[in-house]
Amino acid sequence: MAGEVSIKYYNEPLPENFVSNSSGYCSVNYSLFLKGDVPIKSFSWEPQANININYIGKQFNQLNAIVSFEVLSNLITSPNLTFTFNITDDNFKTYNTTRTIYCIKLDQYGPTKQYLLEPKNYQLSFNEIVRKSSNTGKINGGIMVVEYKSDMPSLLKSLSDNVGLESSIKLLGNKKTSKLYEISNYTPMVNYFFDTTLVSYEWGEILISPFEGNSGIQVKYGEFIILMQPQPATSAIGFYTIKYSKFADEKKVLFSSQNIYVYPVLSDSDFNVTYLFYFNEDGKAESTLSFGTSTIPIFSSKIQITTRNYSEGKEMGLLFQDSIMNITPKGFTAVFSRVPLLPQYPIQLTYPNGFKRKLWFNQYPFSLKNGYGKGPENIYEIVFTAKLSKYSKGQHVYIFNSTSYSSINVIPNGLVDDSPPQVLMVQSFNIGSGGGGMKLDIQMTITDDISGFSAFVCLDTNEIIFDYKNLISGGTIYNGVYSFIYDYGFTPICEKSAFLDFAGNSLEQNQSFLDLIISNNSSNLFSIDLPITAPKTLSDFDQFYFEFNNINLTNQGFYNTLYFKFKGDNNNNSNNNDPNYCIKFRLAISEGWPNPMDYYSIWDNDLQLYKIQFYLPPNLLNIDVLYYIYLGLDYDTQYSTSHFQSWLNTTNVTLSVYSNIGDMMPPLVKALDCQIDDLDNQTIKRTLTWILQIVDQYNGFDYGELTIMGSVDFIPWNFILSSRGRNPLSDIYKFNISIPPFSRSQIYYITHIKLVDKNGIFSEYNYNKPQVFPIIDPLVQVILRSYSVVGDQSYSDTLPSLVGFEFTPSSLDVGGSDSSRAVTFTIKTKDILGIRADVKPTIYLGDTFLNYESIPVKQDGIFDSKTNITTFTVSSIIPYGFGYPEGILLNIFGIQSSHGTFQGFSSLDLENSSFNYSIKTPTFSVNTKLISYLPISNSSSQLTIFGRSLNALNSPSFDIIILDDNGKTVFENNPFSLISSSVVIITIIPTNHSFRVDLLDSKIKIDSITVVPYFNYWISNPISPTTSPTTTPTATPTTTPTTTPTATPTTTPTATPTTTPTTTPTATSTTSPTATPTTSPTTTPTTTPTTTPTTTPTTTPTTTPTETPTNPPQICGGNPQCGGETKGKCVNGVGCVCISPWIGSECQSKIITIPPPAINPTEPTQNLTLDSTGTNEFTLVSLVSLISLRELNFNNQLVRSFRFDKWKLISNTSTDSYYITDILDSNNNNNNNNSIICSVNVSTIWYQTLTDIEFAGQKLTMNPSTLKYNINITSFPFKNELNTLQLVMSATAQSSSSNDDQCSSNEFGDTTSDDNSNYLQLSVNQHSLYGRFIKRGIVDNQIRSIGNEVLTDLSSENSYYISQSYIGINIPNYKQSIQLDPDFSVLLDQTSASSICDERKSKLSKGAIIGIAIGCAAFTIITAALILIALKNKYFFRSMELKVIKLVVTKK
Questions:
Q1: In terms of pTM, does the model score above 0.85?
Q2: 867 pLDDT above the threshold of 90
């Protein structure tokens, strides 16, 4: 329809709506939404004979007109009739559109030749849909898309064929408008391998062809490798490998199975492909898997497992108590006996209106009331209190399991409310398609006189769509306007919804929400702003192609773009490509990929095309990528790769990728062990250590999470795993659990573990829950999942008691600012055996919809020995609007005794114990607030922010504060457009940095929100959409990485590193761009490390780092902060960044220029000396030494140690030197000569001026007077491949001042100068030796992370005038060589050291002590040397430490 009036939306009837009743009559409802530039005046139709139209609702004389009507017809006079709707505007201009009405009998339709189905491709090949197999119990065939070629309504339900393929058919696309069907083929024959087959249907024939022949395919096959499973189980996992002559053969194999998933997970450059088969069918114990090529079966084997009953024994009873609270009618208690862990199923409450809510009990410590031992049996009680409104009425049904349920008739407390809410007005404001989807701000005026509006809910899914907290300023729950953001493009249809009030009355809607707001049958004012579009299907696509194809993903990710457009809309002869229209692209990769990613289309105005930019992760196998398309307004249908291949019949729809090494396997635990010190001694504090070896062959493990829980105390031990500073391909991780004295015997279970690799592929396991495809259990290779700890065998039935519970304030405005919603809680507890102060309780807040918000206590309790009372305190902000208007119920759970008994208190228990159990919430003032924003790229200039009551301000303005490396930049009064009271669009300057948006009213700050842009990696390429690929790429071979285990740090890093592609992908463009396409992900430096002096052997890394060490964000300290503007600045996410010559965590230390140290002719020990200045006789003597090389096992225990005893000076100048030493093996007795284990080469260079250098791909700034070491170690013969090396260095700072009022200190931590290093600062009398230890090195010609730590197992000397530390540089297991690069400087501190100070007033002078110490040291060294000479041919000291004995006399 052309002109100034358009049909914005029409509610088309379903095909089944045209079916007549038993009397031969049909009734069809239509809803039309009309939008014009001038008001709509009238509406009519023709012909009017033989048809009756009844108005349901109409609105004229406004720009937006709504017409709803019913069409009545019959089989005899109007079995099909085309009629025309006429629309006239105020200028008397007429527009029209046509519809055809049918009235048909259902028995006329079925699988007959009357159905004309036309495929685009008459030859069907079995693609990835076959090779992935299925768990349907049948063999999956191909998927075919056909079109229904008739104007009659399509009611086809089934198909039959001539070969027994058991074809199924279903409508594909929007059920109101689509004419496409999907046909799927199956066979029940397990070993059936398809030959070329002609399949005949009643409507035509389809040729089904097999894969190409099996020429050149080599199969390396033995038996199935089924991984050990804890029995009983519901899944089995195994692997087998196939060797191909070329990657192309991989797509020729065919898998057929029953109840088994099969997909490739690993491949290498020798064309070996490892497949994972996954048997996952609840209740099934046996399945068959077959493999073959073309028509030749190769093997067939059965898999058997024992099914598992997850009910864990008897069903647990739920006892419904009769206690009644004033505002909460019922409390409920469940008593559990001999339960290994918390139950994994919920209680369900069904309200009288049919709305259901669930409450889960598996989140410790929620609901745990009593826990104690009664002889050998453990008794647990679970309790919760259901909060119902005082207006609630009718039957409420509580169901726990098949035997535990209760129906309760609730009588209202006070006024009776029998009337549901009323909807008076609906308005909408179009936000557009930014951020993924087609969004409206829907604003509805709702009234409810007595109890107040509560929520708008979907009764189909039992979800709350919006509730009273969406109230706009100026209204109340009795009469107010509610605003919420609605995505009408991708929100699933809710066929049955309801407006509820607090009394439970419901205004039900038996239509979708979009139909509700458009075709409402009242005469109230509706203002709906929808785009000119209708649901689309596959047949609407005009162009569809990927910018690049046949992409090499070997060790690199790739950014690609999908382009498409639609055909013109034949109904109104206008362009069908609305810029506001949006589709969702789900990158599923394969059926075995656990985490699909969603991307959304945007309109490219220059190209006049839609485009979707997406990222392909590295190391995918040789596959055609699986993707799904969701067309906006078509809520029910996802179109897969197979649909596009079948219907569009072009190679452009297939996205192919390959890798020389492929990894689609998640990280797995290869080995697991538990160790406990003093196993049988429960009278002391013990430590239970869990040791896990985590492997990931190519991508590398990234991060994970682990939860271990005791079966008696239910305390969860949560750990964060990270590969930062470790070997991501294989490494050992240790986790410690502290067991208090006299703890009860219990079993510790792994209840949850999730491991994620650097591509986002993850494995996950949850206790007592079956595995669901495609999530793989990370523990499939290990048996141990629990560990029993023997403790105190005595049992106690005494429980901790609550002696005090207070909170302030007791009444809140839950709609006010954060500060006005702050509450402080104080909990006082005691127990005969004592309270565990380290196990913190949790307070739970409850509202009327079984919502619970947790407030965990974060600090240990404080014990009062006089009263035996332990006090816990916590402050928190109550969530916005929570509990209004009838108060918040309070519950306390998780109070633990030292003997493992625990106690909790529900609201009912608190009331019975005379404690206050509720926070009053009488006020809900709605204030203006910024809530969230649409994702924004670093190249975007439009920011969409969602807020609350944005239109309530008198003079609003927005300031942008960019937070970058230079501090902050403020842009005031940025242009903005207020779309509605909830949405504002602000014009900004594109930036790569985070920025803050301040909302002001008359220049007074009201609120702020921080925005973090995502980096837009794509560069726009104007592309001609009609070209096709002309060349086929060849793979670029790369070296397959080898597994190099490293040792285990004693602590678990918490930071989660991120990785980005580091090389340029290889791909074939499917188009001819007019500009050079660029894929530019964030790069990691790849330049060759530079070391000095030039005489030092250097190593050039050939690859980029496997992971980049990054220091965690640090708090900017100092007074003034960071030393003030002239010394440093605070950078968000980094810390203090100092301005040279200032340095340190707070920029309070100044670099001092000193003369170069004298070259030591015997060893690379350097003396950095600061001479006396002024009248203060002070000299700082700083010594830096290399001490030893230590081999450690995976438990960080010493295996052997080699002390550096003899160095050879190879060359030197006044500023640099080069040394070498050989590490000898004392166990080699060949001719009494020790063989060389490895060599250590050390060079030093002195930087007199500020100089920038580069090491391991990282820029480093050498400050004036900096001594830099370059350390190279050759190949080392490790005793075990899990062992690591540790290079031990010593640093000492010593004062020679005669003053006694001095202090010394040492400090170790992370630098803040963006060099991602550790620092060591040894301070004496406001002077320091400052050492920097870089967190990366060159290991086996690769840049790798290196760990540094202060060694506490070596004896160091620290006093008020001496500060000494030993530093261990942790080196991963390696094969060829390593290279390290620490450096040292001398500083002047602005703050005094305060660790160790001299308080003695009568003693030997310090100069005397130093003189005696040096003399004794010289004597001891000479003596030791003579002993070594005498014992040279008999003994070899593997590790020797010389300790000086000092003589102290009374000071004269």
A1: no
A2: yes
